[in-house]
């Protein structure tokens, strides 16, 4: 059994060494209190045309196209979705929100409510990869 364990363990370590922990994250919900009365969470519908089922999608750094929908309760059946360009920095978590002009307004603009570094993400490796 020891002979079987050693090669399996070594193979597992080599696979883990090949794993990259360089990613960013986009979140449409926000946990922090706001003084902006007309900020609402957004639903990340799609990133670069790929529909999302994950509430906290991981994304590579660079320029992307986001399809977003405001989670503000609407009097209309289908809430307005917007396709917007968004530049993502490596190893960064973004908290997005839809800022409506008034409480009755259906139109909104995208705001980044908060951005923070992702713990455990290898920012140095990301910078080296960007250079090469």
Features:
132 residues; 5-stranded mixed β-sheet; 2 helices; elongated
Write up this protein:
The chain is α+β, with helices and mostly antiparallel strands and 132 residues long. It has one domain. Helix content is 20%, strand content 39%. It has helices at 2-18, 123-131, and strands spanning 24-27, 39-40, 42-47, 50-51, 58-59, 62-70, 81-88, 92-100, 108-117. The strands form two sheets. Strands 1, 2, 5, 8 and 9 form a five-stranded mixed sheet that branches. Strands 4-3-6-7 form a four-stranded antiparallel sheet, with no helix packed on it. Mean pLDDT is 79; it is low at 4-19.
Brief sketch in words of this structure:
The chain contains two helices and nine strands, in the order αβββββββββα.
List the domain count as a whole number.
1
Mean pLDDT: 79
Q: In percent, how much strand structure appears in the residues? A: 35-45%
Would you identify the regions where 5 or more consecutive residues have pLDDT less than 50? Answer: 4-19
Fraction of residues in helix: 10-25%
List the quaternary state of the chains: single chain
Number of strands: 9
Q: What is the CA-based Rg, rounded?
A: 19 Å
Major sheet description: 5 strands, mixed
Shape, please?
elongated
Q: Element order, helices and strands?
A: HEEEEEEEEEH
Coarse structural class: alpha+beta
Q: Tally the helices.
A: 2
Q: Report, as a whole number of angstroms, the end-to-end distance.
A: 44 Å
């Amino acid at each position: 059994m020891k002979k079987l364990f050693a090669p399996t363990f070594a193979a597992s370590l080599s696979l883990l060494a090949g794993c990259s922990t360089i990613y960013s994250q986009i979140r449409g919900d926000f946990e922090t209190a706001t003084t902006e009365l007309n900020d609402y969470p957004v639903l990340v519908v799609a990133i670069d045309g790929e529909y999302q089922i994950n509430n906290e999608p991981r994304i590579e750094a660079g320029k992307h196209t986001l399809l977003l929908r405001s989670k503000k309760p609407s009097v209309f059946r289908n809430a307005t979705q917007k396709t917007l360009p968004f530049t993502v920095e490596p190893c960064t978590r973004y908290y997005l929100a839809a800022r409506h002009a008034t409480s009755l307004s259906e139109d909104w603009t995208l705001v980044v409510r908060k951005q923070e570094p992702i713990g455990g993400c290898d920012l140095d490796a990301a910078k080296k990869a960007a250079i090469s």
